[in-house]
Amino acid sequence: MKKLLYIFLVFVSGVLLAQKSTDVKFAVYNNAIGTASMFDLYKDSIEKVNIFKTKANLPSHLKKFDYLADNGLIEIKFKKNAGFPDRLSLEMLNEQNNLPKDRTVFIEGYPFNDTTTLVYNDMISNIELLDSNGQKNIHISTIRN
Hints:
This protein has helices spanning 2-17, 36-39, 90-96; strands at 26-29, 32-35, 46-52, 73-78, 87-89, 105-107, 110-112, 118-120, 124-132, 135-142. By secondary structure, it is α/β, with parallel strands linked by helices. The protein has one domain.
């Protein structure tokens, strides 16, 4: 009986951790991922913001990010000569945590299978290594307002 209860608890915790966050809005600038709230820090440097409310409305250059568009997707354009945040690849994060470079990374429950994807450091609030189906994966929580 204890084994069944333990298995059930592990399963439920795995399901809860794998849930996509419904309140995170992803934003793209210069082919890298951030969050809308993260870009609030740079509002004086932003020239233009395009908001795409559905996956169907995404322009061709953003189609590769359609898996992030459950809550819409925002495209940011900075003014010329404006500073923008530092970024790193998810494969670098995997390597820093002694994981294979191509191991899926989860950001707010969204799986990022392409670890060459660039993300902005400013959006990262917390990084955890969690065991999922017998394999460790990085799970990133973002800064939200």
